[in-house]
Amino acid sequence: MLTSHEFKFFRAGGVDQVLIRDGADIAHIGELDQKLWVALACPTRGVEFDARTLDFIDTDQDGRIRPPELIAACEWACAHLRNPDELMAGGDSIALDAFRETDGDDLPLGEEALRVLRHLQKEDAGVVTLDDVMQRSDTLAAMRFNGDGIIGPDITAEEPVRRTLQWIAETQGSVKDCNGVDGVDRTHAEAFFAEVEAMRLWQAGDDGAACHDGRMLQAAEAVEAVREKIDDFFARCRVAAYDIQAVAALNASPETYEAIGAEELTLDNPRIAALPLATIAPGRTLPLRSGANPAWARALATLQQDAVAPLIGEANQIDEHQWNELLHRVASCRAWLAAKPRSPLSELDSATITALTAMQAPVMALIEQDEEAGPHNARLRDLEKLLRFKRDLLRLLENFVSFKAFYRREGAIFQAGTLYLDSRSCDLAVRVDDVKQHAVLAGLAKTCLAYCECRRGEEKMSIVAAFTAGDVDFLFAGRNGVFYDRQGRDWDATITRLIENPTSVVQAFFSPYKKFVRMIEEQVARRAAASDANAQGTLSSLASGLATADKTASAGVAAVRTRGRIDVGTVAAIGVAMGSISAVLVALFSKFIDLGQWIPMAIAGVILAISGPSMLIAWLKLRQRSLGPLLDASGWAINGRMKVNVRLGASLSKTAHIPRQALRLLHDPYAGRVGLGAPLSALALASLVAMVVWKLDLLHLP
């Protein structure tokens, strides 16, 4: 990728990394080939970085930062500052003359910064700080009109307006304002008043003029309640008049009544309601009282009282002609009712609808006043964003585009703190969400990793710490230590899982001997345990024999005599074996002495044969030790092979050392006593040296 800007690089971790020298480097960071970036993505949580700053950069709010978002943040910050070197200075304050006016800004950030200072009565300061902006944001959030366009009932003392706002919230739903308080916005208010207007127009319509008479309205409602069922009844009667043979089919069959009779009956049973209103017959009239379907008895009684009696006359039954006359009389009211808007406001009377219509103007005026503060709030948010970028953007670049903060030991954002355990402090500790999943990929880092569960009161978290110096002899699950996070808080830490890898070539040199000694100790312990169990069994048998000595005296004596005998053949076999072993050792020693001046080479060869493979494997793994898999497992996308060599590893895990200026009292009152073993060993060593010197004829005595 060609670039007109000249970048400078430094070498660290086996990778060339860009050096951010000035604001121009930040302004042109988009021109840097992304193949040269150390990281290509990082999470917005689980890192030691200001979460709100990362949220400003994470424009798609997916919880991850990627190069396009970081490049856009750098370009946006440089576009709003006269000199991009302001981003190199850090700090959370900007002078008023450092802002740049950009084209298309109705409210320049410089003017908004001055407005903030005026509200805080600090207009003479000439510098706006992040604390000033946050104070102003808190003040706006607590103000009557905070610019979010959401108002609640408490915004006014006028009771009609308060009730209307409550109506809107109950019928249209509510939303949370910036303070988390339920309120209504423009969308909900407009939807509510649209329903109010629809009800007002319906109630004032010409078709409803005749229905304003309560008698006609009741008649229309009574007719509409049974219209479909009565139409069905007279249609069946017409079919029966057409063909008398259809009567049986048009009425309910005996099987239908048997099915209904098998159930527990109530008049609300839908099977009964589905039956015809009355028995079907040619030319049949509809009974309104007796003889009608009991499930529809109440509706028919209402029809007789509210519609038939007032409009046709008192009658207990009606024919099809009377029914059609009744439909014609209430047709206009039925059409008006059919046009009634369906909403939560449908049951309100005209007086209430009129009162709600009058509340539209004051409610919308309150929303508009709140929205007018919105642009200032948006610019205030941009001002906060710029101040946070000035403070944090350079640090993020040095932990994303390059890993300068890590390789210069300045504290990278992925380092969660320091673990103290096994006389060591481990600075490379990373937060972990899922230990099992993390360990699958982190094991490829070729580093000794200890997963720890950290506890502080009710709080818990998991970390993984890299042990890159010292030995691993006493690292195992269950060991306890103390973890200090980046805020200096101390946590109880317990190892829950260990991934073993060599920490140095020196440790690998002694590893075979330690394993050999450990194997001998385990074999000795196993043999001792077996001998102890055998002895316990023998003593138990002897005790049982003594307890029954009066009954089994003769048998006991024979057993004792048998056990007391010494097998001469066994003794001879042991003697022959010891002699053979001694002969082999003497032969080996003689051959060793015969090497003469090659003895040191032989010793070195034996040591190399034992420790060489372990040291070679350790050397290869140490060359492959990398930071990449450890961070990839934590959600990063590491672009380069970030090596952790021996020198860097020694700085990441520090072992305990007594200060140079400290005084040491070497007398240990609890030191182990020196017995005959040490003098005898020294004598044997001196004899061996004397024999070697004599054999090589290196000592010439007169």
How is the secondary structure organized here?
Blueprint (H helix, E strand, L loop, with lengths): L7 E5 L2 E5 L3 H5 L11 E5 L7 H7 L6 E2 L1 H13 L6 H4 L3 E3 L13 H11 L7 E3 H13 L16 H14 L2 E2 L5 E2 L2 H18 L10 H29 L4 H4 L3 H8 L8 H4 L12 E2 L9 H15 L5 E2 L1 H10 L1 H8 L11 H9 L1 H13 L1 H24 L6 H4 L9 E5 L2 E3 L2 E4 L2 H8 L5 E9 L2 E9 L12 E6 L4 E10 L5 H43 L5 H12 L3 H27 L4 H26 L3 H5 L4 E2 L7 H7 E3 L21 H19 L7
Uncertain spans: 557-566, 698-702
Rg:
48 Å
Q: What structural class do you assign from the helix and strand content?
A: alpha+beta
- Mind describing the biggest β-sheet? 8 strands, antiparallel
Strand order of the largest sheet: 13-15-14-17-16-11-12-19
Provide the residue-averaged pLDDT: 83
Number of strands: 19
Shape: flat
Number of helices: 27
Q: How much helical structure, as a percent, in the residues? A: 40-55%
Strand % is 5-15%
The end-to-end distance, rounded to whole angstroms, is 84 Å
Task: Identify the notable features of this structure and list them briefly.
702 residues, 12% strand, eight-stranded antiparallel β-sheet, 27 helices, alpha+beta, flat
Write up this protein.
A hairpin with a 2-residue loop joins β11 (417-421) and β12. It is built from 27 helices and 19 strands. The protein is 51% helix and 12% strand. An eight-stranded antiparallel beta sheet has the order 13-15-14-17-16-11-12-19. It has a three-stranded antiparallel beta sheet with strand order 4-3-18. Strands 1-2 form a two-stranded antiparallel sheet. With 702 residues, it is of the alpha+beta class.
